[in-house]
Amino acid sequence: MTKPIANVYFYIPQQVTLLDLSGVLQVFQEAKLLGFEYEIRFISSTASVICSSGLELASLTHFSKVNPQENDFVFISGFSTHQIDLDGEDASFFTWLQQISANQTTICSICSAAFLLAKAGLLNDKECTTHWKLVDKLKRNIRLQKLKRIPYSRNPETFIQARES
Q1: Which of 137, 107, 158 is nearest to 149 (CA)?
Q2: Structurally, how many domains does the chain consist of?
Q3: pLDDT in tens, the chain (165 residues)
Q4: By CB distance 3.0 to 4.6 Å, which of 13, 44, 56, 118 could disulfide with 142?
């Protein structure tokens, strides 16, 4: 087996929305089937997470056990738009995000996960977006300069995608 060209980590927050996890995951799974050499790994702040739909996801690796590097990707799935609780995540997660950002890891947030990047300070002075229902809330709660009501935002080291539903 050849060494993977990159690791693709999926960080699964509390109350994850399955659509935000499965859509991106399916893209990378298909890429693997087509011959791209990615190692897909699932990480979280706990060993198991209850999704917003009630399904439990288990056997997750604690994020502190991995150290993504320059060629790696970290996707942070969105979570219930009705239960945004940034204090529900392990406080050391935000420091970890800052550290992997310094490693030049590509960090991508899906939908409401932009709140987690903002809390870690990774969106300061950057263009970003979030779920259309949450744009005003993100503007009120996090000091951001360039929040936009657009389907995606791309910065050199972060990519943020909003869901329109």
Answers
A1: 137
A2: 1
A3: 566 688 999 999 988 999 999 999 999 999 989 998 889 999 999 999 999 999 999 999 999 999 999 999 999 999 877 666 666 778 899 999 999 999 999 999 998 898 899 889 888 777 777 777 777 777 776 665 555 555 555 555 554 444 444
A4: 118
- Please report the DSSP string for 79-114 in residue order: B-TT---GGGS-HHHHHHHHHHHHTT-EEEEEGGGH
**Any idea what the CATH number is for the domain that residue 157 is in?**
3.40.50.880
Contacts with 115 (C-beta within 8 Å, 6 or more apart), sequence order: 84, 86, 130, 134, 138, 141, 142
